[in-house]
């Protein structure tokens, strides 16, 4: 199994190198050269299996000889052992033929734990046998940073530095980043906004001397290993509702397009997915694009579902690559145009995209109303991101096909918004109820490349 870049000019890599590299050297994203398929009998055999067993069957064809079967099973067991639910990704019913896939039982209460916990284990294994060490630096608006810290804390071969905008993440998000006591974890509060954090991160990757000195590595959402880990729960949930004999539809609260793209991979692997619905908040560039209006950047309008507040949806490049017949030059050209503000999509590519994905959006009022309505009609308390999904799913749902909406975060991660919409302040799960008693450890750093480089080198003793 080899991986190629969406821009066609970087070398093909093994799974291991793809995972450790992150972004391709031509600026593109790595995708599998060919997508392996599972037979209906292989999919049917997942019925009744543990999440871990299904994870092994789904991901094994993608990892080549990077890990032995025994190693890979152990990594998966370590990754999901700390989840707060025995099913890992349980399904609950919201309404007739409408189900909610709860992806928030991991250590930081958002679906990002599914990918990040496994990436942590895979990095540790791959680096450990080479006796290599890397420095992971990430920028976050909240969920990714806490998931990364939780995944890498205490691992021997990794230091992790997370940049977050000072004063602009929720108390729960901040405490999840600042309270781990392990010395390889470094939370950095930057005097700036999320865009500043991302810009400084990019500066660090472009400073080749620094990059080589600290052995910089990235785990943002374009890392193929993260997409792969997310393919699993499409299988586990669809099979529990009758796949492969029965078609299932999914609605996915979407920002960077990583989660929904994992659904597309599941479909290509042979899972009978009927509709794959992209749900956006008022930052609806993807909804507009999939309705044929081109891909044109606007300004981010902050919403109550902040993890979906995006202008540029990075993993969409992977969808475009397939829609353009895997023509790397065409994708590189589109990404150049994006630098000037946006691009239009050819008729042929649009047809391909619309055959795979449909879309909808939810306003802030609709999101609030959906939180209140779901509580009333099903007793489920939704986080604002999941509510965007539920609202769009209600519009797209058909009688004949079960609809699964992905619940991407626990309501307790966004208590203010949930309380405003429902009147109920969701408590943290008991296993993390002491979050507000734990001691915080954070360094405030200026929004300045040199200050950051000095701090990171100092912390590493370089
Ligand atoms: C990251 C995130 C999303 C968006 O997922 P993408 O893979 O970026 O599309 C949605 N909801 C929550 C809670 C998230 O943390």
From TrEMBL:
Segments forming domain Tryptophan synthase beta chain-like PALP: 99-331
EC number: 4.2.3.1
Keywords for this protein: Amino-acid biosynthesis, Lyase, Pyridoxal phosphate, Threonine biosynthesis
Pathway terms, separated by semicolons: Amino-acid biosynthesis; L-threonine biosynthesis; L-threonine from L-aspartate: step 5/5
Needed cofactors: pyridoxal 5'-phosphate
Top-level taxon: Bacteria
Protein's UniProt name: Threonine synthase
Recorded name of the encoding gene: thrC
